[in-house]
Structure formats: C-alpha cells, structure tokens
Amino acid sequence: MFTAPLSVVIVESQPLMRSALNTALSAEGMTILAVLAGSSQVVRTASVLIPDLILFSVDTPNWDDLKAISTLRHNHPAILILALITGEFHGQEQTMLEHGAHMVLTKSVPRSELLDALKQLKKLQSVDL
C-alpha cells in the first residue's frame, strides 16, 4: 500500500479493464479521480483535477492518443504518465516515450509489476521530475 495517496486518472477504452484497474488501484489506497473511456477528455480533465498520475491505456496508437500524451506532458510536466500498451506493434513503446510517457508497460503485466512501477514513479515524483 502507498504511504501517501496517489491520485490517478484512468484512461481505458475497454469497460472490463476500466473496472479492473479502478478496483485494483483503489484497493491499494490510491484515489481515483476519474475513469475515462478515451483520450478525448483527458487533457481537460487533467487540467481541472491535476492528478499525480495518468494511467493511459493505448490499444492501437492513433494521433489523438499521441497528441493527448504530448499535450499533457507539455501542459502539466509534474503529472506522471504511465502508458499501458498492447505491445503488438513494433516501436509502440518508443513512440509512447517520445510523446511524453514517463514509463511504458504492456497490458499483460501482472498486477504486482504494475503496482511496483507505480511506486517507482511516485518516488520519481518526490525527487521532482
């Protein structure tokens, strides 16, 4: 469990994954500020809520998702961005990093590894990105 609550916005197109991520992260003591079905509202939502982290799930990389990640990183450099990818497309991880994600994991990563990654990001945040 996290010592200080991490505030999170989840962006995930699949309803079952949205629910699973919401449940898993809430059970770890994180504060879920919003759960979005797509990238269309994430920039506005982040500007209003200013979360610690955006968990941004990307299926097939498209311009809207990449633009949203770039805009988030530019407008809110202190908000951490963890991109979850399918890993089915060559160069997908590098593309996410180049557009501003702080970390990239595949969607198939075990829950324990996702939580460890979030803890690593939280430590980075406290060091000041």
Protein architecture, described:
The chain is an alpha/beta fold. Helix content is 45%, strand content 21%. The protein is built from 5 helices and 5 strands; from the N terminus they run E-H-E-H-E-H-E-H-E-H. The chain has helices spanning 15-27, 42-49, 63-75, 92-98, 111-127; strands spanning 7-11, 31-36, 53-58, 80-85, 103-106. Helix 2 runs parallel beside helix 3 (63-75). The longest helix has 17 residues, at 111-127. The model has no long low-confidence stretch (mean pLDDT 91).
Summary keywords:
alpha/beta; 5 strands
Summarize the structure.
The protein is α/β, with parallel strands linked by helices and 129 residues long. Helix content is 45%, strand content 21%.
What is this structure's SSE topology?
Blueprint lengths: L6 E5 L3 H13 L3 E6 L5 H8 L3 E6 L4 H13 L4 E6 L6 H7 L4 E4 L4 H17 L2
Parallel strand pairs: 1-2, 1-3, 3-4, 4-5
Helix pairs in contact: 2-3
- Main β-sheet description: 5 strands, parallel
Structural class: alpha/beta
* Distance between the ends: 23 Å
By DSSP, the count of extended strands is 5
Strand content: 15-25%
Unreliable stretches (pLDDT < 50, length at least 5) are none
Query: On the 0-100 scale, what is the average pLDDT?
Result: 91
- With helices defined by DSSP (H or I, 4 residues minimum), what is the helix count? 5
SSE string: EHEHEHEHEH
**What general outline do the C-alpha atoms trace?**
globular
Spatial strand arrangement across the major sheet: 2-1-3-4-5
Assembly annotation: single chain
